[in-house]
Amino acid sequence: MKTENAFYFVIQKQFANFTWFRTACITSVDLVIDIGNTHSKIACFDRDEIVESIRFENQNYTGIGEWILKRGYKNAIYCSVGRISEYVMSVIKKQSLKVLCLNRHTPLPFRVVYKTPDTLGYDRIAAAAGSIRAFPGENVMIFDFGTAITIDFVSATGEYRGGNISPGLNIRFRSLHDHTAGLPFVERDGNYPFLGEDTKSAIVAGVQQGIIFEITGYIEACEKRYSNCKFIATGGDSGFIAGMMSGQLISYPDLVLEGLNYILDYNAYSLRI
Questions:
Q1: How many domains does the chain have?
Q2: Which contiguous run of DSSP H or E holds residue 7?
Q3: 160 and 91: one domain?
């Protein structure tokens, strides 16, 4: 009887150790949330590595909340280009997480040289952080191809120097349709001529080549001003546009997520969250 009891004690202890280990593994990851204008991305990070990620269209807060509740986390960072979702925050708080909401007062692992830092988009801040982590000690120009196209420069000394904002791919297509009497709305197409052969191909070639010539101009101007510069493409349309530019851009689709994770790491140490 004593032998049998001892056996069950060992089994229970091993099971308890396994349960603790499994829980520790699940909750050892950090939660990174990026809410954009047209889609949202969420990722779990184990230190610097993404172990799982998902993308939601049109700010699907219910889907985001359900996904968050499927697992446990250590810390979290929340970034939104608009208002913070009270529903998503309530879901996060159910897990008793320490949450860092990226805002104007968040300490950053780089210096911002910008006349109006309070107006600088959080997604641009995160992209700058991601570029510094990915390419430390190098000049980097970031092209974020989302609803808008943002062009930002980070110096080799780790300073955000500023950038520009331009209409995104879909906005250009939509604007031609909405602000003219007879032009149709068309969508992006990887197969287009240099010169349009009909109205549809003229719009596709004009919009897409306009972006290519625009980005090429930035690259040429940057190379004249700065040495050894990296040119990164990120955002929802980055794969499509980078694919049309013959290797001129380094495709980095998770740059913003990695930047947010870097900011979270930086504050987890300095603020001890």
A1: 2
A2: helix 2-26
A3: no
Task: Please give the C-alpha separations between residue 134 and each of 35, 46, 73, 128, 262, in angstroms, as whole numbers.
Answer: 22, 16, 24, 10, 10
Whether residue 93 sits in one domain with residue 206: no
Catalytic residue among 30, 34, 123, 237: 123
Secondary structure class of 114 (helix, strand, coil) = coil
Segments in the chain below pLDDT 70: 1-27, 58, 269-273
At 244-259, the pLDDT tens digits run 998 899 999 999 999 9
- What pTM, to 2 d.p., does this model score? 0.85
Decide if 150 contacts 141 (C-beta within 8 A): no
Do residues 262 and 132 make contact, with C-beta atoms less than 8 angstroms apart? yes
> Locate tokens 């520009």: which residue?
164
Asked if residue 146 is part of any domain, the answer here is yes
pLDDT digits (tens, 9 = 90+) for 58-116: 678 888 888 988 888 888 999 988 888 888 888 888 877 788 999 999 999 999 999 99
Phi, psi of 42 (to 5 degrees): -130, 145
Active site residue 34: no
* Residues 5-29: b if buried by 16+ CB within 10 A, e if exposed: eeeeeeeeeeeeeeeeeeeeeeeeb
- CATH number of the domain to which 122 belongs: 3.30.420.40
The 10 Å Cβ neighbour count of residue 151 is 18
Q: Is residue 136 in some structural domain? A: yes
Q: Which is nearest to 250 in space by CA: 142, 162, 150, 178? A: 142
